[in-house]
Specification:
The protein is of the alpha/beta class and about 500 residues long. It has 15 helices and 22 strands. The mean pLDDT is about 95. The structure holds nicotinamide-adenine-dinucleotide (NAD). Nicotinamide-adenine-dinucleotide binds next to helix 8 and helix 9. It comes from Bradyrhizobium xenonodulans. Keywords: Oxidoreductase. It holds the Pfam family Aldedh. Belongs to the aldehyde dehydrogenase family.
């Protein structure tokens, strides 16, 4: 019997999106070594893809080196035109791309459609930002001299990308690299190679020259080791777990690459007793359950002021009860499967640990026809700071509510994490909002909003949540070197 994902994939307009060849030096490479791609909702095999080798990585690096001078030599307006063409093709094929994303990643189709638009928007935004890499002129401290700071492309870049946003996490890196004038080699997550390969097809059609955007699929260690070793890779951008981020940072030390890391989060979500409860529930639903909870911005610790704790839990659980769990290709679905079984198992372990330590649990009964990758949205209340969920990233639809008494106390608890990616504060008190905007230790803070990402904002974290920024002019500078030039004797 053919499952729902395979049926949808067979009906794609772009059947070449599932051909499974890697894209190196402008050529489609079909290896005899193959890896399977599965639908995480059913475990069904839906495609297979080439397994690239370390030798393929070397070919890709050589091709990128060859392509670099001509690509950096193009006028930024010309690069921008090619990038806008790429974004436009993503939009033209958004339905096929969304089906690919849902089939291999599992997220609901409406969220996959949103991701395609989000992903295309990064390419489009960087197309313009590349035209504005102005540099500076410094008022001179020396007579008869002119001091300039130029921004120049750093060289060949590499990207190691995750499975939770298989399109947007590539375009957020590649849009910036290409706009800066750098070729990029992408190694996507093995769970979601089809989306990455489809992006390569569209880049080729948009006129991105051979060697400028390449996608290699295969074993993460086999492919990343030669990228790390090679002195020609000047920048490395990674999104994924803090554990792997540390390995890649260490591996880049030998060749002193410029490294940017988007790692795990453990976002505190503070709800004070002066807020409109409906707005807070709406915010927390968005911050917890987008991408079925598999989002580094996800609210991991929902701190609720004691006076409204019980009313909040009641309203929150009523909203959660409306979430429909199922296959992402079913239009009614709000929560799909976890992309990896290990992520679902981690959620279950956190629930068991919290309940053993005294948390109250509210969850719907699991539909037994759903496989092991599904986690039913679960609310844990009366969570305490010693529970696993209070300090380990969840990455799934399990919501932990922790009561608090005072502002001072909750700020200390919110900042006690080694992570510092996103944070949220809901309050109607302007002075408090201003105070907390200074005091919460994170790279991105939403005050009375749970929706704040997009191409113009600097996305990134403090502490062990990462290094550098993506999106915004800061994201472009990750792929550029500064050069100070002093003209003397004028
Ligand atoms: P991961 O860090 O293992 O995978 C991310 C990327 O790194 C993938 O491309 C993977 O193939 C690659 N990778 C894995 N091991 C590698 C290695 N030794 N050398 C080089 N590359 C390697 O993430 P995961 O295990 O799939 O997910 C585990 C946790 O990571 C999640 O529960 C979540 O906490 C976090 N995560 C965060 C994000 C994010 O958006 N920041 C995305 C995915 C996962």
């Amino acid at each position: 019997m053919v499952g729902i994902a395979a049926t949808h994939l067979r009906a794609l307009r772009r059947r070449d999106f599932i051909a499974g060849a890697a894209f190196i030096d402008g050529r489609w490479i079909a290896s005899s070594q193959r890896d399977v791609v599965v639908d995480p909702a059913t475990g069904e095999e839906i495609a297979d893809v080439a397994r690239c080798s370390a030798a393929d990585v070397t070919l890709a690096i050589e091709a990128a080196e060859r392509a670099f001078p001509a690509w950096r030599g193009l006028l930024p307006t010309r690069r921008g035109a090619i990038l806008r063409g790429w974004a436009s093709l993503m939009r033209d094929h958004s339905e096929d791309l969304a089906i690919l994303v849902t089939s291999e990643q599992g997220k609901p189709l409406a969220e996959a459609r949103y991701e395609i638009e989000y992903g295309a928007a990064f390419v489009e935004w960087f197309a313009a930002e590349g035209e504005r890499a102005y540099g500076e002129t410094i008022p001179s401290h020396k007579v008869d001299s002119l001091l300039q700071v130029r921004m120049q492309p750093i060289g060949v870049a590499a990207a190691v990308t995750p499975w939770n946003f298989p399109i947007a996490m590539i375009t957020r890196k590649a849009g910036a690299a290409l706009a800066a004038g750098c070729p990029i080699i992408v190694k996507p997550a093995p769970e979601t190679p089809l989306s990455a390969l489809a992006l390569a097809r569209l880049a080729e059609e948009a006129g991105v020259p051979a060697g400028v955007f390449q996608t290699l699929v295969g074993d993460p260690i086999d492919l990343s080791a030669p990228l790390l070793r090679d002195t020609r890779i000047r920048a490395l951008s990674f999104t994924g777990s803090t554990q792997v981020g540390r390995l890649l940072l260490g591996g880049s030390a030998q060749t002193v690459k410029k490294v940017s890391l988007e790692l795990g989060g453990h976002a505190p979500f503070l709800i004070f007793d002066d807020v409109d409860l409906d707005k807070a529930v709406k915010g927390v639903m968005a911050a917890k359950f987008a991408t079925s909870g598999q989002d580094c911005l996800a609210a991991n610790r929902i701190y609720v002021q004691r006076g409204i704790h019980d009313t909040f839990v009641e309203a929150f659980s009523a909203a959660m009860a409306k979430l429909k769990v199922g296959h992402g290709l079913n239009p009614a679905t709000d929560i799909g499967p976890m992309t990896k079984l290990s992520v679902a198992d981690k959620c279950r372990a956190q629930i068991v640990d919290a309940v053993e330590r005294g948390a109250r649990v509210i969850t719907a009964k699991k539909d037994e026809s759903l496989g092991a990758n599904f986690v039913i949205p679960t609310l844990l209340s009366q969570v305490t700071d010693d529970m696993l969920i209070a300090h380990e990233e969840t990455f799934g639809p399990v919501a932990a509510v922790l009561p608090f008494d005072s502002e001072e106390e909750v700020v200390t608890r919110a900042n006690s994490s080694e992570m510092g990616l996103a944070g949220y504060v809901y309050t109607d008190n302007l002075r408090r909002a201003l105070r907390l905007s200074e005091r919460i230790e994170c790279g991105m803070l939403g005050i009375n909003t749970a929706s704040f990402t997009g191409p113009p904002i600097p996305f990134g974290g403090w502490k062990q949540s990462g290094l550098g920024r993506e999106g915004s002019r800061h994201g472009l500078s990750e792929y550029m070197e500064l050069k100070y030039v002093c003209f003397g004797d004028l």
